[in-house]
Amino acid sequence: MSALLATATAAKSGSTVTANVNGVITVVQVARDLTVASGDVLVVQRIGRLWFALGRGFTAAPAAPENDSPPDPKPVVTTGSLVISPVETRSYRPTWGWRTDNDDVYQGEYGSNGNHTGAVFYGTKPRSLDGATVVQATVKVKRISAGTYAAQSTTMRLMTQAAKPSGAPTLGSSTSGPSLAVGASTTFAIPNSWAQAMVDGTAGGLAFFDSDGSPYVRFAGRGTWSPAFTLTISWQRG
Fold first, then answer.
1. Where are the beta strands (DSSP E) in the chain?
2. How confident is the model at residue 178 (pLDDT cuts 50, 70, 90)?
3. How far apart are CA 168 and CA 177, in angstroms?
4. Using CA atoms, how far apart are residues 150 and 183, in angstroms rounded to an integer?
5. Per-residue confidence band for 65, with pLDDT thresholds at 50, 70 and 90
């Protein structure tokens, strides 16, 4: 049988050494005057049932690679979008409580009838994305007749409650809301962090409130316009 190259898997012990011969860990007989270290390339030959190391190849054992383990697999990233209709839209005034004549979303005060907090509640559906990361979030908004016809600036708030409380809603962060003329509608981007808070369960909805009661603006609620305040959350996992 022709001589082969094998790689020692350990140092010589007594008269033998273990070596990788053609992918098989094999006990190889070693001449008494031949020193073998782990990693040495050996010239081996089979005689009868035994393998014998005839010598060492190269000047030294090849250096082991720093990391011969396969790289970690790339994480699988999944993406999607979730469309969420509000469970309720409503407006609150401190003296009068929650309006029952309609479910539109008001900001501001008309005359001396109380400063509105318009509220949009999303219930528990955002929690179905628990563990996902929000990459974009938008709501559909339409302004209907009330106040000045021209576009008016609004103040949007993050709201704690996911369902209507008996009293005033709890408001958090604020940002500039949609500015629309009467009759106009738009798809408005809300902060990703706000939608993430709804997914994580630390917030439950959106609100409109300006402490000085102006401007007076009325957005369509679910009873007036079916797409009102539909929330679309784009998300990813992984």
1. 4-8, 16-21, 24-30, 41-47, 50-57, 78-84, 88-93, 97-98, 105-108, 116-121, 133-142, 155-159, 171-176, 185-189, 205-208, 217-219, 231-237
2. very high
3. 20
4. 10
5. low
Q: How many CB atoms lie within 10 A of CB 209?
A: 24
CA angle centred on 192, ends 218 and 153, rounded to 5°: 30
The answer to whether residue 64 sits within a structural domain is: no
- One domain, residues 46 and 123: no
pLDDT tens profile 74-88: 888 999 999 999 999
Domain with 40 in it: 4-57
Residue 109 lies inside a defined structural domain of this protein: yes
pLDDT tens per residue across span 182-201: 999 999 999 999 999 999 99
Say how many domains are in the chain: 2
Continuous segment of H or E residues that includes residue 195 = helix 192-200
- Within a domain: 67: no
Beta strands 78-84 and 97-98, pairing class: unpaired
pTM of the predicted protein model: 0.71
- Tell me: pLDDT of 145 over 90: yes
Using DSSP bridges, classify how beta strands 50-57 and 24-30 pair: parallel, antiparallel or unpaired.
Answer: parallel
- Provide the b/e sequence for 102-125 (b: ≥16 CB within 10 Å): bbbbbbbbeeeebbbbbbbbbbeb
Q: Pairing relation of β-strands 185-189 and 97-98?
A: unpaired
